[in-house]
Amino acid sequence: MTYQVEKKLQLPLYQIYICTATLSKVKNELNLSSNLSITTDIWTSSSMKAFLAVTAHYINGSQLNSYLLETKQLVDRHSAGNVASALREGFESWDIFEKVHCIVTDNASNMRNAITVHLNKTHQPCIAHTLNLCTMNTLKHADLQQLLEKCKNIVGHFKRSTVASGELAKMQDQMKLPLLKVKQDVSTRWNSCLTMMQRLEELKVPLSAAMSNLPGSPSLLSSEDWALIKDCICILKPIEAMTSELSGEKYITLSIIIPLIRGVQHAVENAQPITSTGKVLQTNFHDILLRRLGYVESSKICAKATLLDPRLKILAFDKVINGNQALKWITQEVEDLIVTITQHLETPNSEIPCTQGRADSSENQASLLWEHFDIKAKQEFSASTPTHSAEAQIKQYLDLPLVDRKLNPLDFWESKKEMFPQLYKLANKYLCVPATSVPSERVFSKADELTKDRRSRLSSNMINEIMFLNSNM
Prior knowledge:
The chain is of the alpha/beta class.
């Protein structure tokens, strides 16, 4: 990414300084990081231009940091090869290709193939996207669709009619209730259905009273309808809470996927729907969640992150076999790190050179005095195999008590990095991976405002630079 600000943008000197200073800051931060994770997504603007947003995430001390690297226009077809080329070009321009070990995207096949086949990187599916698919499939039940249509008609009526909205406000005032308005759902966001039903339930009494006084209003909801609304809210609220929890950008999220999936399953299983449709929804969601996300506990990257979270460790795994497999993966990786370090430390034996002078002679004598100890130390070091050292380090880590769930796990690793040097490196590697691609999707909320009709003639390079500065300054 380059800023040819003086020739191309004709900016004042202080703005040129801001551009170059921000660019230097981001480059320096990325150079200091040994492991980076990436989120990326594609968005089409109102002017029908496609953009690829790329965000980088890494750990510095006890802080999880992120930067927007680019918002690049994609001119060619969004094939796996073209997407991979665009990503590779961006990584190489920042000189981070070798540091990137995991890329988070939605479940689209072109994105998955671009990362795993063309870039040969680890792909982590966006959990929020998968949860959205689970919920949308659950909401396809015919009886529920009929209820949602009734709710939309009621909300639409109160949104369009000033008389109806005035009557609702009047009823709330007479009943000394908070002044609330109905909320309409959005077809692309399942949680807007939940928001709509929650608001209708809050307005149940004044809404029913207002509708009975309004000629030509939509048909009232029956007692069975209200009961089904209550069942839906009970089943859908834990899913919304999990989506919100995993969409955070300032705290660790990958390691909490496994316990949160089990938590949602537990919450939905313990819901007590009273309608037959509610019971069907409960069963359907449980089955769909198991089919789409049942693999997560045995996913290598998720399992490693969970085990390396000092708040969770092996306790977060529902199945013992999956926890043991995660232990094997971490042990092997720690062992590999120890072998690498050992190879660097080992030096060929050489005889002490003959030197002249009092100082050199003193050094030789000191070496002879320590020769007996050095031989024993080398024998002791050789007796401790990398496997034994890795297992000992992990056992010591697991034997420590769990950290409070509400605390920052990176504080633990920063304080224990001397005690567990290899595990510390792995924690920085895996805990920086986001659970969702939401960070790159948030970029498009800003980009949408930037590329409105009155600014639709902005060049793609200008959009990229404005978004970069807006996100990273």
